[in-house]
Amino acid sequence: MEKQKVIAVEHLSKKFKEATALKDLSFSVQAGEIFGFLGPSGSGKTTTIKILTGQLAQSSGKANVLGKPVEQINENIYEQVGIVTDNSGLYEKMTVYSNLKVFAKILNVKKERITELLERVGLEEHKHKLANQLSKGMGQRLVLARALLHQPKVLFLDEPTSGLDPSTALAVHELLFELRKNGTAIFLTTHNMDEATKLCDRVALLNEGLIVEHGPPKEVCLKYHSEKKYKIQLTDGQAFVLPHSNETTERIRVWMAKDELMTIHSCEPTLEKVFLEVTGRELL
């Protein structure tokens, strides 16, 4: 049974005077799915989020969020939507806890939820700090906690782990997996292809306003796996990268029989290498 389409986009484009930011985008995002919208800075990721959240009007095409055309989005839809972007504002003269308390009241969320989220994003011990005293990473965590207060049906995340240390980023990842399990649709923009590979059910690679490749991360990578090789490490420290061949198969068999094989890995391309191949440019 097909899940509900929470976001549906058909032939979307956006022009700014002479520049075209988005060109004929079509995609959908289902409930309980993490959808990665991937590309370098300036490729159109943030513009797409602004259109889908009613902050910016498209030039042509259609887009629906939770069954409502983006042109008709009003404050009521934000009771079901969470947004984390680079410019998501905080009340700088208020404490971490007070910031969340304000939004909890607006969204009719119990105070216990504040404490739970502060613990999950690693801000419990900083709850009495003023927002303007937080580091960039801590501020990002607070914005994320605020977006998750009301357990939204759809969550827009623009580079959500930028500036976070590895342990906090991992905690954020676990939160996102939990949200997905509970049916939240997550629209994630990032230029971190490793993170996208780990998190996303499907990805779309965006370059200069165009989707140049899309699908589940593993399938996208395997599609461009034209030259099969194996990376091998032996117990004596020797390392090899060998082609897929009968000779390689025999060498591996011998090493295994002598218990000399430490590790073996296939060498399919990463999402970053696929992006480079289909666009001719690196992620910056």
From TrEMBL:
CDD domains: ABC_DR_subfamily_A. Residues 7-233 form the ABC transporter domain. InterPro entries: AAA+_ATPase (IPR003593), ABC_transporter-like_ATP-bd (IPR003439), ABC_transporter_ATP-binding (IPR050763), P-loop_NTPase (IPR027417). Keywords: ATP-binding, Cell membrane, Membrane, Nucleotide-binding, Translocase, Transport. It is found in: Cell membrane. The keyword tRNA-binding does not apply. Its main location: membrane. One of its GO terms (molecular function) is ATP binding. SUPFAM superfamilies: P-loop containing nucleoside triphosphate hydrolases. One of its GO terms (cellular component) is plasma membrane. Gene3D superfamilies: P-loop containing nucleotide triphosphate hydrolases (3.40.50.300). This is ABC transporter ATP-binding protein. It comes from Alkalihalobacillus trypoxylicola. The lineage of its organism: Bacteria, Bacillati, Bacillota, Bacilli, Bacillales.
